[in-house]
Amino acid sequence: MQIVSPAKTDYNLAQSYTTEVGHVPRPALQNQGGFRFVRELIETAALIAVLYALVNLTTARFIVDGPSMEPNFRTGQYLIVSRVNYMFGSPARGDIVVFHYPNDPDEDYIKRVIGLPGELIEIRDRQVYINGELLDEPYINEPCDAGRCRDNRWQLDDDEYFVMGDNRNHSSDSRAFGPVNIRFIVGEALIRYFPVSDWGLLTHLGYDNHRSG
């Protein structure tokens, strides 16, 4: 019979216990590190999703298609449009706005705000008048042809805007489909971001109601 010393037994037990205790935490630490990585990945993905949703709630992106705003905007240019500007204010004269075409809300148009709610808009002798005063329009590319700017007048309601293209001879606008109700306006164009050579903030004209000529 082999006799084992109690001291050796205690040592062996202690050694065995120490070995077990020494090895148990290591897998736990590895699992914790893996969990932390997954959690950070989920949090990052959630933050990106929230930011993406916020950007899409506050802005929209559109591509210019057609000649109606030349020479200031050309086909193929990409624009960022603010959805929030008109939540805290109203469209101003000279603003570049994107709106749903009243006769087909699935189509989006880009035009310039010419007339404001309550105003009398007149086209007389191929020029635009606001409440009887000639409107200064430095942005149009050429004089309007008589056939495209026939004498006419529109009295705007309290929720209507008169919009026109800068390229008057090649634009379907409020002269054709009438004033645009505020509910159709998507927002104000703020930034042109593509092509890169055209990148920049859009200039606001800063009309003081209107300028007489």
- Approximate strand percentage: 25-35%
Low-confidence stretches: 1-24
Q: Output the CATH class name of the largest domain.
A: Mainly Beta
What is the residue-averaged pLDDT? 84
Please give the oligomerization state of what you see: single chain
Gyration radius, rounded:
33 Å
Q: What would you call the structural class? A: alpha+beta
CATH fold label of the largest domain: Umud Fragment, subunit A
Helicity, as a percent range? 25-40%
Distance between the termini: 123 Å
Number of separate strands: 12
Order of helices and strands: HHEEEEEEEEEHEEE
CATH level-four homologous superfamily name of the largest domain: Umud Fragment, subunit A
Largest sheet: 8 strands, antiparallel
Number of H/I helices = 3
Query: How many structural domains are formed by the residues?
Result: 2
CATH A-level architecture of the largest domain: Ribbon
Shape: elongated
Can you describe this structure?
- The chain is built from 3 helices and 12 strands, in the order H-H-E-E-E-E-E-E-E-E-E-H-E-E-E.
- The protein is 26% helix and 29% strand.
- Residues 1-24 have low confidence and may be disordered.
- The protein folds into 2 domains: 6-57; 64-201, Ribbon (Umud Fragment, subunit A).
- The protein is α+β, with helices and mostly antiparallel strands.
- The strands form 2 sheets. Strands 1, 2, 3, 4, 9, 10, 11 and 12 form an 8-stranded antiparallel sheet that branches.
- The N and C termini lie far apart (123 Å).
